[in-house]
Specification:
binds iron/sulfur cluster; 15 strands; 3-stranded antiparallel sheet; about 450 residues; about 20% strand; alpha/beta
Length: about 450
């Protein structure tokens, strides 16, 4: 495919920016790693899409035209501001999500990465992922993203059945998806992830497993399985309500999930998280930060972040949400340097609850060492060791509590939500017994 002149200019700019970034990284010896409070992952939200998918409840907009230069400028400004506010000195990973970030130009991606690398240490080998949709990611553009500094792609493939893709309102066909996947693997070998959905209306177990087998013949080393969540306000929800589509069957979805994960295990994939599978060590380090309750900054309209503002005292961490609507967000960024709409201080107990709910999503679970980083006084044994309910879960083979820490078994990972209904109240109880008054919560 021949590059347009504008696209070529954009890629050259992107490549130069990426080279500058590597020079910034490569000028001296690696600095010694800063403490956890000065490290974070960075999420960048690109809010625009070409078309609304029928199931989508994300913060996305279908614009008539995108003022990309203005958006780029605001993303750069907000990244600089939040890095300054947080005192973060090292960014371990960057994730461009959306929306459809593959609609942005590589130049925008490069500009954000360069701003990050100037404000903090962004190691040259840090994971930089971009979500790409098959239709909006023709091959020269994928190469452009690589030149801009992206080193991992996450492809929103969703299905290999054209009827299902139409039902989902996707703009691509199964053929487009496989072509994009092949091109992505050529450009980013070993660094391509694909999403596959399950539990769609009228979907049957056998044909879905056939899709998964087909995908295994084409995919790289990372795969995510997501169950469709029917959200109020979406076109799909309305169709199911009106009876024009059958409601998804949760039992069939559970069967797909169980059989799917067994097939993936057989194919050499490690299920390292409830929905995520990797082989050859291709785990997503960015998402791992979320599950390990690490700090992350979120920039862009509606992005979420969790970090400790520099110099803040009296609480442990803050949850931040940026203004949802892109035009309003841009105005705020131009006025204040950031578009933070909501800041919610998290108590120590809330942080520990997140640590349990997110940590147990992974196969490693919560190690004693990890837990101690957040709570040195009250051990996992103190919280869960004496509980009769936990003993039952251990006996049922759903949970493990041992010298390594607390984690779900293979069987338990599939029913995590029900386990949390037991575990979180136990944590709250143990915390209240330990801390008599909420005033003293750190
Ligand atoms: S491409 Fe993704 S974000 Fe955009 S409408 Fe579809 S599901 Fe939503």
């Amino acid at each position: 495919m021949v590059l347009s002149r504008a696209a070529a200019r954009s890629y050259v700019a992107a490549a130069k920016a990426a080279q500058r970034r590597h020079r910034v990284d490569g000028t001296g010896k690696s600095p010694s790693p800063p403490p956890a409070s000065q490290r974070a992952a960075l999420y960048v939200h690109w809010p625009y899409c070409e078309k609304r998918c029928s199931y989508c409840h994300f913060n996305k907009y279908i614009p008539r035209g995108v003022e990309e230069a203005a958006m780029r400028n605001c993303l750069v400004i907000e990244a600089q501001t939040l890095l300054r506010f947080s005192g973060v000195r090292r960014v371990d990973s960057v994730f461009f999500g959306g929306g459809t970030p593959s609609l942005a130009s590589p130049h925008t991606v490069a500009a954000v990465l360069e701003a990050v690398a100037q404000a903090a240490h962004l190691p040259a080998d840090s994971e930089v992922t971009l979500e790409a949709n098959p239709t909006s990611a023709p091959s020269p553009k994928l190469a452009g993203f690589g030149a801009a500094g992206v080193n991992r792609l996450s492809i929103g493939l969703q299905s290999l059945d054209d009827t299902e893709l139409q039902l989902l309102g996707r703009t691509h066909s199964a053929r487009d998806a496989l072509q994009t996947l092949a091109e992505a693997r050529r450009l980013f070998p070993g660094r391509v992830s694909v999403d596959l959905m399950l539990g769609l209306p009228a979907q049957k177990v056998g044909p879905w497993l056939g899709q998964l087998q087909e995908l295994l013949r084409h995919c790289d080393d990372h795969l995510s399985l997501y169950q469709l969540s029917l959200e109020r306000g979406t076109a799909l929800f309305a169709q199911v309500q009106q009876g024009t589509l059958p409601a998804p069957d949760p039992e069939l979805a559970a069967e797909m999930y169980q059989e799917g994960r067994a097939i993936l295990q057989e194919a050499g994939f490690r299920q390292y998280e409830v929905s995520n599978f990797a082989r050859n060590g291709a785990l997503s380090t960015h998402n791992w930060t979320y599950w390990q309750c690490g700090q992350y900054l979120g920039i862009g309209p509606g992005a979420h972040g969790r970090f400790m503002p520099h110099g803040a005292e009296g609480y442990v961490r803050e949850a931040r949400i940026q203004t949802l609507e892109p035009d309003n967000w841009m105005k705020e960024v131009m006025l204040f340097g950031h578009g933070t709409r909501k800041r919610v201080p998290l108590s120590k107990l809330e942080l520990l609850e997140e640590c349990v709910a997110l940590g147990l999503r992974t196969d490693v679970g919560i190690t004693h060492q990890h837990w101690q980083r957040f709570e040195p006084q009250l051990t996992l044994w103190d919280v869960f060791g004496a509980s009769r309910e936990v003993k039952e879960l251990l006996q049922q083979g759903l949970l493990l509590l041992d010298h390594r820490g607390l984690r779900c078994s293979w069987k338990g990972l599939a029913v995590l939500d029900s386990l949390l209904l037991t575990l979180l109240p136990l944590l709250q109880e143990a915390w209240q017994q330990r801390v008599p008054s909420p005033v003293t919560e750190g």
